[in-house]
Amino acid sequence: MLSYFKNFFDTVRTVFEGLSVTFSYLIRHPITIQYPDRIDYRVQDTLPRRYRGHLEVDLDICTNCKACERECPISCIAITDSDEPDKKRWMAEFDIDLAKCMYCGICSEVCPTGAIRHSQEFEGACYDPIAMARHFVLDSPMAPFKPTRGGETDSALARKVEIGKDYMDVFAQPK
Ligand code: SF4
Ligand code: SF4
Q: Model confidence over 112-142: pLDDT tens digits?
């Protein structure tokens, strides 16, 4: 009989113990953040460098080696060479289908210049998957980048080369 009442009181006590944790949340300050309209900073700016957001390509430092296109396991990248005779190996199209991309990072890992890289951008919801295709050659064919022995003399291009190297260094570091 004694054990019956002991079990009964233990049951009631543990139920209230559990509920006390639940009720404590009624008077705590909420820690969830409403997105996207109630924060005063860009979430993208808070993401780590290794974050794999939407791919971006800097064609000014792209050698048109096509390593990214070859290695992509699901063929999201399509690079087409120009058929103009005086623009051999120039890029007429450099497209990435972000609707197919699984953000595995292989393309950016194999790129020798850091031209293709993941950004911190992740917002891309749209109603039509066609709108997820990114076209990096905009008007006329782009000449492939040829590194200059001894470093680039054009300061803007040298800066782009540095950004590409910096991106590759971040991913080369141990996690
Ligand atoms: S991140 Fe992966 S799936 Fe996406 S384009 Fe690069 S290699 Fe292809
Ligand atoms: S983005 Fe990089 S891997 Fe792809 S073609 Fe250009 S240089 Fe080669």
A: 999 999 999 999 889 999 999 999 999 899 9
Beta bridge partners of 133: 97
Across the chain, the runs of DSSP E, i.e. the strands, are 55-57, 77-81, 91-97, 116-118, 133-135
pTM: 0.79
Two tokens at 90? Answer: 């120039």
Residue of 56, 59, 68 to mutate, ligand 2, most atoms within 8 A of C-beta: 68
Q: How many C-beta atoms surround the C-beta of residue 99 within 10 A?
A: 14
Q: Which residues pair with 93 in a beta bridge?
A: 80
Fold of 49-172: Alpha-Beta Plaits (3.30.70)
101 Cα: distance to centroid of ligand 1 (angstroms): 5
> Which listed ligand is nearest to 60 at the C-alpha?
2
Atom of ligand 2 nearest to the CA of 107: 3
Q: Which ligand is nearest to the CA of 93?
A: 2
Domain boundaries, the chain: 49-172
